Amino acid sequence: MAYEDARYFLNGVLCSIGSRKLKVVSTDGYRMSISEMILDKAYAGIELNIIMSRKSISEFLKVVSMQ
Question: CA 46 to CA 36: how far, in whole Å?
């Protein structure tokens, strides 16, 4: 995600959860990054796609690092 840019576009991360896979996709306007991870537990019937903003990601990381 780009921190400073003169162009207006959505800065965020797409988080997609499927049966046993977490996929994260982000871009800064020039490059695209895709990462996949196999989850320990199967989440039967859950299909979830969320676009999280930069602020949401930073707050999430703060909460996760406290635990």
Answer: 17
Residue with tokens 């996949």: 36
Given the structure tokens 């499927």, which residue do they identify?
18
Convert 17-54 to b/e letters by CB count within 10 Å (16 or more is b).
beeeeeebebbeeeeeeeeeeeeeeeeeeeeeeeebee
Does the CA dihedral 47-57-27-22 come out positive or negative?
negative
pTM over 0.70: no
Across the chain, mean pLDDT equals 80
Q: How much is the pLDDT for 35?
A: 93
As a whole number of angstroms, the distance between CA 53 and CA 67 comes to 22
